[in-house]
Design a protein that fits this description.
heterodimer; A: alpha/beta; eight-stranded mixed beta sheet; 12 strands; B: mainly alpha; 13 helices
Chain lengths: 330, 306
């Protein structure tokens, strides 16, 4: 990815640190993460719960609530550093140029308003149009995201829709102002597998039609394989490996990535027991010395327990944070 | 929908009869003979005997209850022992006074309670929040008679701004309404605050922020409506209980409302009047709850009955 020139990136998250200032200490949820998102591409961010992927996305939107704060780095969007914008400027971007879809379609919509009203609101905040115009626009959007009987659904309340339809509403809401960047935080985790495929298909379609860049946050490598062009693997607040999609599945390098791959159940596998990475995600308040994956790593050496590895580039599109690749090639 | 509320009203009838029955039986075992209350001392025994008979006081309690029930269904709650006037008339006469006091107090409590709750929630754990919640805590925990007496001492006796008691002019309404209103406002403020804070934790609040909505829009537009349900319940029950007579406040300020009527009835062993006021209060509380349910379905579409 680094062979591309700067102009090709819509979003450049540059070495950001987002910390939570709790009573028990400072939690470095995102600890120096650099992510670049080119125009019109779908970038996956993969990792276990608590690895900092959601916090990274909330940092981009400026939606972190106290006690969380981005303390270092820059987030360049279309040439502007988002961390230096004031509240009003940030609000103008939110839902307009950058929008977000959340994990739980069940709870992400307000139960006391019709879905039509909620999507209309997303439009009227940013565009100066009448209620009727907004309504016809919403119905158009509903048709685009594949909601049947769009006119009727306009007046439906969230509880009257299925999970899949609700997520379509959320996507419609997110796409309503034709954003340049769509952040999707586990958009299909709460859905059935068949609905998941439909939703992913829809997102790819929208990307192709509107040239929207998508930041896809997920812990599901199946989703990554389905939709992403390039992937960042995160662990305990740091990027462990970044590569394009084919490399990831053909040649996973970091022991953590390998572990994730082996944890996917396979029908033709001879092993009867499913692999799982030993140990648990470390407590961010008490991070291990050295490489933060070392206590769980099969290949850890003495060095791994004392020194922190950097992100080593093994070819143009592929970097790994592991001493095994210190000298470039494996 | 209409069917549901019709059903609710039908269910209210057995509840009312049950309450009437329990009250009747309890009054029956309370010591104190109504005849002596009515006639004072030194009355000839045969006069008393005669009166007992004409008033059917010697019949078994259950017969007397059924007789009461039959009359009550026709709108006749008997004659007050002490005031010698129909109970229905007495209640109808006192009710407007109580309505005036109750509605003023309720409106005061909403105007004070809800904004205080909202502001405290938005400014959570700041000095404003702590001040407002302290104020609310005072309202909730100070007994009405204490606030009432302190108010009378300060504003009537010391400063002379407001009359001590009575109910002829609006000036006499101010203090009792404020005393009652503050008390309810405390509850409403605390409830609004805690429910709003709870609602702010929901995912749809994050969605609203992600749309680019201003924080006031997020709170008032998205969180408030979701946090109102429990507040509405309390408001409906409060207004119903205010309407059924604020016993202490009306006594302290000498207001001739339903509350005073009930106290007088208790002190005078005036069984029919007491029985009538209890049934009346029960009906109001039931009605308040039905109103709250109707309001629910307006606020939250999930509760709408198909």
């Amino acid at each position: 990815m680094s062979e591309m020139s700067n102009e090709q990136f819509l979003l450049k998250i540059n070495n950001i640190k987002t910390h939570f200032f709790t009573k028990r200490g400072i939690v470095p949820a995102v600890d120096g993460v650099t992510i670049e998102i080119p125009y019109g591409k779908i970038i996956g961010i993969v990792g276990e719960s608590g690895c900092g992927k959601s916090v990274t996305s909330l940092s981009v939107l400026g939606l972190l609530q106290r006690p969380g704060k981005t303390v270092e780095g820059s987030i360049e969007f279309n040439g502007r550093n988002l961390l230096q914008l004031n509240k009003a400027q940030m609000r103008k971007l939110r839902g307009n140029e950058i929008s977000m879809i959340f994990q739980e379609p069940m709870t992400s919509l307000n139960p006391v308003y019709t879905v039509g009203k909620q999507v209309s609101e997303a439009i009227t905040i940013h565009e100066n149009i009448s209620k009727e115009e907004a309504k016809s626009k919403v119905i158009e959007i509903f048709k685009n995201v594949g909601i049947p009987e769009a006119e009727k659904r306009f007046n439906a309340y969230p509880h009257q829709l299925s999970g899949g339809l609700r997520q379509r509403v959320m996507i419609g809401m997110a796409m309503s102002c034709s954003p340049k960047l769509l952040i999707a935080d586990e958009p299909t985790t709460a859905l059935d597998v068949t609905i998941e495929a439909q939703i992913l298909h829809l997102m790819r379609e929208l990307r192709d039609k509107n040239h929207t860049s998508i930041m896809m946050i997920t812990h599901n490598l199946g989703v990554v394989a389905e939709i992403c062009d390039y992937v960042y693997v995160m662990y305990a607040g740091k990027v462990m490996e970044q590569t394009d999609i084919n490399e990831l599945f053909e040649k996973p390098c970091h022991p953590y990535t390998e572990g994730l791959m082996r944890s996917i159940p396979r029908i033709h596998s001879k092993n009867t027991r499913l692999y799982s990475i030993k140990g648990v995600v470390p407590n961010l308040l008490k991070l291990p010395k050295g490489c933060r994956f070392s206590p769980r790593c099969d290949k850890a050496t003495k060095k791994c327990f004392t020194q922190e590895p950097e992100l080593y580039k093994i070819d143009n599109n592929h970097s790994v944070r592991c001493f095994l690749y210190e000298n470039g090639v494996r | 929908m209409a069917k549901y509320f019709f059903k609710r009203i039908l269910i209210a009838v057995p509840v009312l009869i049950g309450v009437a029955f329990i009250t009747f039986m309890m009054l029956n075992v309370v010591p104190g003979d109504p005849i002596t209350v009515m006639m004072r001392e030194h009355v000839k025994p045969d006069v008393i005997e005669n009166l007992r008979k004409t008033m059917h006081l010697d019949d078994p309690a259950i017969i007397r209850f059924l007789r009461f029930l039959g009359d009550a269904l026709r709108g006749n709650f008997g004659i007050s022992y002490k005031l010698s006037r129909p109970v229905t008339d007495l209640i109808v006469q006192a009710f407007p006074v109580t309505i005036k006091l109750a509605s003023t107090a309720a409106i005061i409590s909403w105007i004070i309670g809800i904004p205080i709750g909202i502001i405290s929630a938005i400014r959570q754990s700041t000095i404003i929040d702590q001040m407002f919640m302290g104020f609310a805590l005072f309202g909730v925990s100070m007994p009405v008679f204490l606030i009432g007496l302190l108010g009378q001492y300060t504003f009537s006796y010391k400063l002379g701004w407001l009359p001590v008691s009575g109910f002829e002019s609006w000036k006499q309404l101010v203090m009792p309404a404020l005393v009652l209103g503050w008390n309810s406002a405390g509850t409403i403020a605390r409830l609004t605050r805690s429910n709003l804070l709870e609602a702010m934790k929901n995912d749809y609040i994050r969605t609203a922020r992600a749309k680019g909505l201003k924080e006031t829009g997020v709170v008032v537009g998205h969180a408030l409506k979701n946090s109102l349900l429990p507040v509405i319940t309390i408001m409906a029950i409060q207004i119903a209980s205010l309407l059924s007579g604020s016993v202490i406040t009306e006594s302290i300020f000498g207001i001739p409302g339903i509350g005073r009527l009930s106290v007088d009835a208790i002190q005078g062993r005036d069984m029919p009047l007491l029985q009538g006021s209890v049934v009346f209060a029960t009906a109001l509380i039931i009605f308040g709850n039905i109103c709250a349910d109707m309001l629910y379905s307006l606020v939250d579409p999930r509760i709408r009955v198909e």
